[in-house]
Each structure stands twice: as structure tokens, then as C-alpha cells.
């Protein structure tokens, strides 16, 4: 194979990914007057990838996982390097459970009740801001 052909093949593969957009929609949510910017993962593919392979998460940023209906949920940290805290949230925005997750731990963490949403924030955020189970998350009306 000639060098020109090899270079062209490599460039075509690299450029084919330039049009793909892995960015997720961002929304603002609040809990007890604390404001967070969160990416919304609402499709199966988005929820499966979550925060995998990322090395950092900005302060007051996170990811909100949206499910079609309330159900028992489970999360694990495969390929996730950031220490996170996770809140399971009901359809009406009530925090049902908060758990700390360990990077790269593939042990599932199950919700104790059916939840519609899951919110991941940097580990310790809920505790440091005095956010507890029973508190309400104010979510945008247009979440799908």
C-alpha cells in the first residue's frame, strides 16, 4: 500500500468522526436553592455511556439520567474514573436515595424504590450542600 493511500485512509477515518456530535443537551436544575448544570441522558445509548471515560467534572455540573417511567434502577461505574454521588429521584422530583459510587467499581447499586431519574454529581456534593433524601429537585418541564 502506498504512503499516500495509507494517509488518505487514516484521514478519512478521522474526518468521518468530526461530524458526530456526542454532546448532550444541558439543563439547569435546582435543589434547596443550589443550582446545577446537568447533561441530560435520555436515550438508552446515552444512559449506557453516562460519564464513562471522562477524567473530570466541573463544579456544580453533573448528569441527569431520564427514564421513560418509574422503575427500579441500578448503576455501576464501569469505565468511570470520576468519584460520584448518585441520587435516585421520583417522577415528582423527590430524592429517594443518595449513594456514593467508587470509580471503576462494576458492582451494581440498586434503587430501594422505583425512580424516574438518577442524578450524578461529584462525590460529596449532596453532603457538602446539606442535600438529603426527601428534598425536592426542581426539574425542567420539558424532560423527555
SSE layout:
Blueprint: H1 3-16, E1 26-31, E2 34-41, H2 44-49, E3 61-71, E4 74-75, E5 84-89, E6 95-101, E7 109-110, E8 115-122, H3 125-128, E9 137-138
Parallel strand pairs: 2-3
Antiparallel strand pairs: 1-2, 1-9, 3-8, 4-7, 5-6, 5-8
How is this structure best described in words?
By secondary structure, the protein is of the alpha+beta class. The protein has a single domain, classed as Protein of unknown function DUF192 (Jelly Rolls). It contains three helices and nine strands; from the N terminus they run H-E-E-H-E-E-E-E-E-E-H-E. Strands 6-5-8-3-2-1-9 form a seven-stranded mixed beta sheet. Strands 4-7 form a two-stranded antiparallel sheet. The N terminus is likely disordered.
Largest sheet: 7 strands, mixed
Which quaternary structure do these chains form?
Answer: single chain
Give the DSSP E fraction (strand runs of 2 or more residues). 35-45%
Number of helices: 3
List the secondary-structure elements in sequence, H or E: HEEHEEEEEEHE
Q: What spatial order of strands do you see in the largest sheet?
A: 6-5-8-3-2-1-9
Number of strands: 9
Give the structure's gist in a few sentences.
This protein is an alpha+beta fold and 144 residues long. Helices cover 17% and strands 36% of the residues.
Supply database-style keywords.
single chain, 144 residues, alpha+beta, Jelly Rolls, two-stranded antiparallel ribbon, 9 strands, 36% strand, disordered N terminus
Amino acid at each position: 500500500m502506498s504512503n499516500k493511500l495509507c494517509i488518505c485512509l487514516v484521514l478519512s477515518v478521522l474526518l468521518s468522526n468530526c461530524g458526530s456530535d456526542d454532546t448532550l443537551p444541558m439543563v439547569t436544575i435546582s435543589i434547596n436553592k443550589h443550582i446545577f448544570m446537568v447533561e441530560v441522558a435520555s436515550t438508552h445509548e446515552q444512559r449506557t455511556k453516562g460519564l464513562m471515560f471522562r477524567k473530570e467534572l466541573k463544579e456544580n455540573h453533573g448528569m441527569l439520567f431520564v427514564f421513560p417511567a418509574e422503575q427500579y434502577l441500578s448503576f455501576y461505574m464501569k469505565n468511570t474514573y470520576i468519584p460520584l454521588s448518585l441520587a435516585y429521584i421520583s417522577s415528582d422530583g423527590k430524592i429517594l436515595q443518595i449513594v456514593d459510587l467508587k470509580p471503576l467499581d462494576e458492582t451494581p447499586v440498586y434503587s430501594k424504590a422505583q425512580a424516574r431519574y438518577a442524578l450524578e454529581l461529584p462525590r460529596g456534593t449532596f453532603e457538602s450542600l446539606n442535600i438529603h433524601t426527601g428534598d425536592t429537585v426542581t426539574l425542567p418541564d420539558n424532560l423527555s
